[in-house]
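To: structure desk
From: M.T.
Subject: fold request, one chain
Message: Could you run this one when you get a chance? Sequence is below, nothing fancy, just the single chain.
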Amino acid sequence: MEALGLDAVWWLVSPGNPLKAKAGMAPLSARFASAQKQARRSRIVPTVIERDLGTRYTSKTLKALTQRYPSKQFVWLMGSDNLAQFHLWRDWRGIARHMPIAVIARPGYDAAAMTSPAMAWLRPFHVPAANLTQGSLSRAPALVTLRFDPDPRSATAVRRDNPDWAEQYARASGRFSRRDPITHRLIESPGPV
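Reply: Done. Structure tokens follow.
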């Protein structure tokens, strides 16, 4: 947030990723509670706004967000693992034309991200992180790549190491808000998982 001069980060907890199998996906309320726990004591705001917008693809979500919140200036944040396969996303060029993108390095994905078809298209719009100034990301297309001390954790590995994580969040859901902080709509409790 500091590197980009952001006021907050909205963590979009997706109702379902079109590029991932639905089988075995934890309930939305458990994934939202997990995101809340991870984001505590920060300016990261987990939200299930995609569910309420009725969007399934990022391109449609971003258009709906900017229509619903015209006074906000958004920057799309994603990991380099996503940049490596960004060219597979529906209307990925439209996403880049619609909103500036900040890519956060992820261990093991640098080479694939930097040599991806999407990066080849985005390279002319690259803004070096050292040159970021107020307004650098005010227009799209624009891309900045950010490097921080790498976090070696992997969500896939965390889930693999604790296969009952969703059930634990379902049981503990009373400790977490059941209202989306952006939409203020109720997030249903999944019941037994």
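Reply (cont.): The longest strand covers residues 9-12. Let me know if you need anything else for the meeting.
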